[in-house]
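Marked as duplicate of an earlier ticket. Keeping the data here for the record.
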Amino acid sequence: MQLVETEIRNGAMWLWLNRPGRHNALVPELISNLRTAIVEAAKSAPAALVLCGRGHSFSTGGDVGGFLDHAATREQLIRYANGLVAGLHDTIMDLLTFPAPVLAAVNGPVTGGSTGLVLAADMVAMADTAFVQPYYREVGFGPDGGWTALLPDRVGTARSLEVQYLNSRLTPAQAQGLGLVSRICPRSDLEGVIDDWVASIRGGMAQTHGVTRSNVWDDARLALVRARLEQEKEQFLNLIVRTETLEGMKNFTRKSA
């Protein structure tokens, strides 16, 4: 099974996270497939790049079971976690430097590090049944995927910290109020909303869209984001090998079973 499916539709390249049996939770193979798909998409010069998830979830972040499967030794766990988080952060940078508008169709819950895929999008349509939630404190993980590297600049420092300290579940309306979501709609209308956006984008000059995006995500801003993501990764690795975190992961998987 392809963990990332691609579809060309009306001049846009759709990338579908395709691990629905695990709520599109992130594992190294999925991240690798996604990075490859983004690189290939850039070569085809689409009007826009669209991210969406198969099944009922957009993505629930790093697969906790995957971490536990690689926790036999400290070295094995660090190696696995480093590969996954570094890969996710590279993917976020790939999205920020993509040469066309990036859109996200959030079909369901988006939690943990997968939120970074949404934060890297320019316009976000969210199903009215979806939500955004960090979940880091429940397990003992350090935030990754831009929760400290990108979110404070989007919603403000205090609000960003509040959401993470309280593990707040952001409804679509709350996410829209914070500027994280452009449009809320029934899940059945989600693809139509994106199609309308793509049609409007195609009505403009692609070169203008490209320059607009690269001006916003210029070298100085990208370097700052990259440094902050690297800090997130290092702190993630620092916490994941702690006894408290291992117990947190086990408790989380028991509750989720």
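See parent ticket for discussion. The beta strands are 4-9, 12-17, 48-53, 102-106, 110-111, 123-127, 132-133, 183-185.
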